[in-house]
Amino acid sequence: MFSYCTDPSTLSGLTWLSCYLTTGKHIAFYASFGTVMLLLAITAPAALTFGFLGAMAARSHIAPLRWIGKIYTAMVRGIPDIAFFLFVPIALDQGLEYLRHRWKCPDWGEAVRQGNDFVVCAEAKLPLSTAPQWVHEGYGFTLAVLAFAFVFGAFAANVLYGAMQAVPKAQIETAAAYGMTQRQSFWRILVPQMWVYALPGLSNLWQILVKATPLLFLLGIEDIVYWARELGGSKTARFSDYPHGDWRMWYFLGLLVFYLLLTWLSEKGFSRLMTRLSHGQATMAGEAQRKAAA
Amino acid sequence: MKKLLLATALTAISASAAFAAGHGTTIRMGTEGAYPPYNFLNDAGEVDGFERELGDELCARAELTCEWVTNEWDSIIPNLVSGNYDTIIAGMSITDERDEVIDFTQNYTQPDPSAFLAMSDSVDLEGGVIAAQTGTIQASFIASTGATLLEFATPDETIAAVRNGEVDAVLADKGFLEPFDAENADLMFVGDDVLLGGGIGMGIRESDPELKAKFDAAIQSMKDDGTLNALIEKWLPGSATF
Fold first, then answer.
1. What is the percent of chain B where pLDDT is above 70?
2. So where are chain A's domains?
3. B25-66 pLDDT, tens per residue?
4. Residue A224 to residue A222: CA distance in whole angstroms
C-alpha cells in the first residue's frame, strides 16, 4: 500500500502497523463489513415485505390463502433457524439447476442424481462455471439473502398479524359506517395505525437480524467472521511478511465493538421513530405527547 | 424503501447475468486456503502455496482455464459432489473411505509422514489428549489409538490448542507443522513420525472421468520431466520425491 512497506521485517511500531493493516487481506476484511451492511440493507425490507404478505394472507377471508399464511409462520417459528439457513440455499440452488436442466438439455440421457453426485448439464449450471468469481459470490449472497428474508419474514408476519389485531375494532367499524369498503378500511385505517403496535416487535426483530448476520459465514460467504478468524490465526514468517502469534482475540474483540455499536445506533434510531409514530395515536404514548403539548 | 427493493431485485438479476461470458473449459479448483505450505491465503488475500503453483501448472498442461475458490474443510467434499466446484486440491490424502464418495487422481506427493507437535517432550502420546483437524486421516488415526481425540475445524486452531494447554499435542502433516517447530522455541516435535494415507491426490467427482484422465495425464507428465520434484523440494523440503 505505502511505499515504505516493501520490506516489513525492518519496520516496527506504528509504521509496521500501518503496513500490516493495509495488506490486501485486510482490505478484503474491511470490504466484508460492506457485505454485512448490504445484507442488512436488502434483507430488512425484503423480510418486511414477506412479513406483510404473510400477515395479509393469515388474515385473509379465503381459506387456502389463510392456511398458507398460518402454515408459513408456524413452520418457520417451530424449526431451528440454522436448519433453514442450511436448507434453503441448497434446495433453491439444486431446484433451480434442475429446472434449468429440464429446460435447456431435454435430450440429456444420464440421471441427475448419480450416487452422491448431483449432475446437471454444463449449460444448466447456476452460475455457469465459466462465470467470473464475483458472479459466483453474488449468486451465493443472493441465496443467503433469500434464506434470511424467508426466515425473518415469518417472524415479521407474526408481529404484523398481532399489530393488525391490536388496532381497536371501533376504528374499523367506524370506517365501515362511513361507507368504506374492506379494502379501503384496510389501507386507510388499519395499516397506518398498526405500525405503532408493530414497532416494538419489529425493532426486536431487527436486533436479532443484526446479530444473526455472522450466520453468513456458515453459508460459505466470506464475511467479517471469516476474515477475522483468517487474519487472527497465527502466521509464520515463511508464508507471510507479517508473522504474528494467535491474535484472534483482538480481531473478535473488534467485531464485538462493531456489533455493539450497530445495535446501539439502531436502538437510538428506533426510539426516535417510535416518538414520531406515536404522534396523534390513541395509545398511552400518544396520549402523553398530547398532554405534554397542551 | 423502493430503492432497497430495487436493489434486491438487482442482486437477483446479477446472478442471471452469468450467462454472458462463455469460452473454453473453465475448471473451478476448490481448496481450503488455511494449510500452509500446501495451500494458504497470502498477504494479498490470494490462494498461494505448493498446490497453487502445482494446480496452475497442471491446468496449463491440460489446457484448461482454472479458477481458484476456497471452501471450509468440513464441507469440501459435499460441495464438490453438488457441483459448486470441479476439483478438490487441498492437501487431501487418498484414503479408501474418501474414495467411496469421490474419485482421486494419481498421487502428486508421496505418503507424507505425520508428526506430533507439543510444548514439552514428556507428553503422553498414548493416553493423553491429542488435537487433529476434523475429518482428516490424522483424526481417524488418533481415534484408533488409546489417546483422547479433540477435533478442530481449522488447522490453525489445533496449534492454538497446544499453545493454550487445551491438548497435550497435535498430530498433523509434518510439512504443515515444520515452520511452527522451526520458528517457535516453545514448540517441538515429539515421538515418532507416523505414515498415514496413500499420498495426496486431487479429488474429482465420480461422474467426471474425463477430467480425472486429463489431470492424471498432466500429473504424469510433471512426474516424468522432474518439475513435480522441483516443486516438492521448493515447498515441502524434507518430503520424499518421486
1. 90
2. 3-248
3. 789 999 999 898 999 999 888 999 999 999 999 999 999 999
4. 7
Q: Is the dihedral of CA A96, A97, A100, A106 positive or negative?
A: negative
Are the C-beta atoms of residues A235 and B43 closer than 8 Å to each other? Answer: no
Residues of A whose CB is below 8 A from B21:
130-132
B34/A119 touch (CB, cutoff 8 Å), yes or no:
no
Domains of chain B: residue spans and CATH:
26-110+199-235 (3.40.190.10), 113-195 (3.40.190.10)
Of the candidates A56, A55, A72, the residue with the CA atom closest to the CA atom of residue A183: A56
Query: In terms of DSSP bridges, do strands A117-118 and B148-152 run parallel, antiparallel, or are they unpaired?
Result: unpaired
How far is B184 from A251, CA to CA, in rounded Å?
Answer: 22
Say if CB A213 and CB A258 are below 8 A apart: no
Whether A238 sits inside 8 A of B36 (CB atoms) is yes
Q: Is the pLDDT of residue A127 over 90?
A: no
Whether residue B38 contacts residue B231, with contact meaning beta carbons closer than 8 Å, is answered with no
Dihedral (Cα; B38, B43, B46, B52), 10-degree rounding: -30
Average pLDDT (A207-232) is: 88
Residue A188's contacts (CB-CB under 8 Å, 6 or more residues apart) are A175, A180
B68: enclosing H helix or E strand = strand B65-70
Single pTM value for the model: 0.81
CA distances from A287 to A268, A275, A290, B206 (A): 22, 12, 5, 70
User: Does A229 contact B at CB distance below 8 Å?
Assistant: yes
Is A152 in contact with A205 (CB distance < 8 Å)? yes
CATH classification code of A3-248: 1.10.3720.10
Chain B residues closer than 8 Å to A49 by CB: 5
Mean pLDDT of B179-191: 88
**Dihedral of the alpha carbons of B206, B211, B214, B219, in degrees to the nearest 10:** -60
Four-residue CA torsion sign, B49, B54, B57, B58? negative
Cβ contact, residue pair A239, B36, below 8 Å? yes
ipTM of the complex: 0.77
- Distance from B51 to chain A by nearest Cα, in Å? 14
